[in-house]
Amino acid sequence: MAMYRVHGMRASGNCHKVGLLLDLLGEPYEWVETDVTKGATRTPAFLAMNPNGKVPVLEIGPGQYLAESNAILHYLAEGTPFLPADRLDHARVLQWMFFEQYSHEPYIATSRYWLHILKEPEKYRARLEECRPRGLAALGVMERHLAAADWFAAGRCTIADIALHAYTHVAHEGGFDLASFPAVRRWLERLSALPGYRPMAA
Amino acid sequence: MAMYRVHGMRASGNCHKVGLLLDLLGEPYEWVETDVTKGATRTPAFLAMNPNGKVPVLEIGPGQYLAESNAILHYLAEGTPFLPADRLDHARVLQWMFFEQYSHEPYIATSRYWLHILKEPEKYRARLEECRPRGLAALGVMERHLAAADWFAAGRCTIADIALHAYTHVAHEGGFDLASFPAVRRWLERLSALPGYRPMAA
Prior knowledge:
The structure is a homodimer of 202-residue chains.
Chain A: E1 4-8, H1 13-25, E2 29-33, H2 44-49, E3 57-61, E4 64-67, H3 69-77, H4 87-117, H5 125-146, H6 159-168, H7 182-192
Parallel strand pairs in A: 1-2
Antiparallel strand pairs in A: 1-3, 3-4
């Protein structure tokens, strides 16, 4: 089979997820760096791969593209221990992945984008203030879960953990201090001890 | 097996999805009406079911709860024609479901919530203006896809269609006119012709 090609931006947590899972699986891949801050997702060539104009995109074969970071994780994890086959465990993994995209990413990743990627705290001050309580609420939901469980679903590291790890391990770059979330910090340490693990590039 | 119990609000598209799939599957269920505008998702009893405090919640058995509308659809559809078993088709269904929760719902459902549920157009005017281009962009992505395909994935109606139908068939209640999206309108008609179909309660 041809090698996977990932169209993504190294500094994006959504893209990092995909690279991290491929690393944990020991699967080789080619990375095509795609800078969203410079309009690289708005070109006709990019929109032909993903009409929604977002990274990451997984190129599976000639003309075969898959978008949405968490759908890509699902595709890559199928048949591996990172995606349980049991019906309820499988749905529980997806529950946390939808939580990540709806209740976590829009507040924590977005704050990080304004502060760390665009470096415009003043311009986005009102937005940052709006995002703050909602990002803290998401971390609170994670903390309560992880106080009683090592992983998010199925009793082991799954793609739910990979998805939630992405923007949590760089939450401080979005102004979210993890000091008051000790169970979250211990979970990040467990994850970073897995063979093949690497954090996001600085 | 005991009957499923759905904790949801009739006027919510995310909750309607779950009822609609159960209707299409001919599966009986009990509905527990849960009014989010009156704090019903903030009680200790509700938070014990879903620590994220959101409807819908599927009660599968005693003490067994599943949250996130699209994870619930996945659980209910497994083993039925609404969820393809093929690896890429499965991921493609999820691609559109993550698109729905990240690029469609936060703009179209949110606008509808302010206009149709809370009935406060003036209070949310600035937010409505921000959501408008993004909601139209999501409808544009759907229109381009549906101009060349009857359904979102796997060549048949899947839970990707059920998920995207929820807030699209009431988009006008959020101020989004579907007149310029003819392929979307034809897709809504195809879906409403399925046996067991019902629209959201007025």
